[in-house]
Specification:
- Strands 1-3-2 form a three-stranded mixed beta sheet, with helices on one face.
- The chain is built from seven helices and three strands.
- It has 163 residues and is mostly helical.
- Strand 2 (54-58) and strand 3 (62-68) form a beta hairpin.
- It is globular and about 55 Å long.
- The chain has a single domain, classed as Arc Repressor Mutant, subunit A, CATH 1.10.10.
- It comes from Mycolicibacterium parafortuitum.
- This is DUF955 domain-containing protein.
Length: 163
């Protein structure tokens, strides 16, 4: 299934921020998005709960992308979390998620929920997750096709159009 226009536009916008000289990597793209937003984005590896590969945490003055320590394809997870950010996925608060999911919560359940990703637990959560996955796949694909010294995005787009 092809990426939606919204996802394709978001990937194009992120790639437009890529540095003109030197290697274009995913971490450099995250830095470029950070600079463009005027808001720091930190990347950290952490021991996340089982089944959680990454989390986007928003603080009052910065954002953090947490990536599961030891993950073999951490760049895909980083691209996924970046997708949530640039696609404007907001999610709901952990308190609201807990109230909607349970009537009586044990301390074990509360601890579990506090460790879960809350960015996409709202009514459109599955759509947001699919959008973030589509964004990650397209961004990683296009990054692999960028020349090491990005002299022209036209060269990349022609390569995509004509194989």
């Amino acid at each position: 299934m092809p990426a939606s226009r919204v996802v394709t536009r978001a990937v194009n916008d992120v790639l437009a921020l890529a540095p003109r000289h030197g290697e274009v990597s995913l971490t450099r793209l995250v830095e470029a998005v950070s600079d463009s937003r005027g808001r720091t984005i930190d990347i950290a590896h952490a021991d996340l709960p089982p089944g959680v590969c990454g989390q986007w945490r928003q603080y009052s003055d910065h954002d953090v992308f947490l990536i599961q320590r030891g993950l073999p394809a951490w760049d895909r997870t980083l691209a996924h979390e970046l997708g949530h950010l640039v696609l404007g996925h907001e999610g709901i608060s952990i308190t609201q998620a807990a109230q909607e999911s349970t009537e009586l919560a044990t301390s074990d359940l509360i601890g579990y929920m506090l460790n879960q990703r809350t960015g996409c637990m709202g009514p459109s959560g599955e759509d947001a997750e699919q959008e973030a996955e589509d964004f990650a796949a397209l961004l990683i694909y296009r990054l692999g096709r960028l020349p090491s010294d990005r002299s022209s995005i036209v060269q990349v787009r022609l390569g995509e159009a004509f194989g």
